[in-house]
Specification:
Blueprint lengths: L8 E4 L5 H12 L3 E5 L4 H15 L3 E4 L6 H15 L4 E4 L14 H29 L2 E6 L12 H20 L5 E8 L5 H14 L3 H9 L11 H12 L10 E4 L7
Parallel strand pairs: 1-2, 1-4, 2-3, 4-5, 5-6, 6-7
Helix pairs in contact: 1-8, 3-4, 4-5, 6-7
């Protein structure tokens, strides 16, 4: 086992399940100290935290900060600085989704999607940067979406937020271009997460179609490979962007989408 991130500390928002947890496992496996964040059953989260720490012999802490609350985001970053003595890598991954035509879109859903998917990226970045600037080294990796580059109907808030994440990443990358800090976004297509698994089950029931048909013809209609991106594949790309080998890469948006955005 390599330990390319030994002694480094990473904060990953929305990391108690799905892509975020996959990224947390990948960093812990490479020797990084990890701050988990997200909602879920307290016992389950503690079991994940303790398991990661003991399996990889790294420090793993948990913050229950709500990504829609700026003060809680700032407190989370402070807690990470206290726990680890620094923050080297920030992965902004927390996200929510809601689907409806724009004229029927509930305003409170618009506000919550914008705040958790976009504003939280600003608040966490703003809070983490001073510690990175002090070391003149840092990696900020924002998990956007194929929807940060292209659109689908009925997802106006999500598409707006994810386009915002890509644009924000570019702007901050330019500000930091002469430092040792890079800022990039990752734009996954459909990833098989617990959330997507639930969509498959719901759609199969709604449309009275077999699971394979729902996956191929409904969910993966825009994804030419007709295969889900895996959580591990997104995590591997995240590790690469955090590595020293990725030093000259900043302000980029990386598609990992089975060809979706090549259309």
């Amino acid at each position: 086992m390599s330990n390319q991130f030994s002694g480094k500390s990473v904060v990953i928002t929305g990391s108690t399940s799905g892509i975020g947890l996959g990224i947390a496992r990948a960093f812990a496996g490479e020797g990084a100290n990890v701050m988990l964040n997200g909602f879920g059953d307290a016992k389950e989260i503690e079991s994940i935290r303790a398991g990661l720490a003991s399996e990889h012999n790294v420090k793993v802490v948990y913050s229950a900060a709500d990504m829609s609350k700026p003060a809680e985001i700032a407190a989370m970053i402070d807690d990470a600085l206290t726990a680890f003595g620094g923050i080297d890598i920030l992965v902004n991954n927390a996200g929510i989704q809601f689907v409806a035509p724009v004229d029927e879109f509930p305003p409170e859903k618009w506000e919550s999607i914008l705040s958790i998917n976009l504003s939280a990226v600003f608040y966490a970045t703003r809070a983490a940067l001073p510690a990175m600037k002090a070391k003149n080294w840092g990696r900020i990796i924002n998990i956007a979406s194929a929807h940060g580059l292209v659109a689908s109907p009925n997802k106006s808030a999500y598409v707006a937020a994810k386009h915002g994440v890509v644009g924000f990443s570019k702007s901050v990358a330019l500000e930091l271009a002469e430092t040792g800090i890079t800022v990039n976004s990752i734009c996954p297509g459909f990833v098989l997460t617990p959330l997507v698994e639930k969509q498959i089950v719901d759609l199969a029931a709604q449309k009275n179609l077999p699971r394979e048909t729902v996956i191929r013809d409904v969910l993966l209609a825009p994804q030419p490979s007709k295969q889900f991106v895996t959580i591990e594949e997104v995590a591997t790309l995240t590790l690469f962007l955090a590595s020293d080998a990725a030093r000259p890469i900043t302000g980029s948006a990386y598609s990992i989408d089975g060809g979706w955005t090549a259309h």
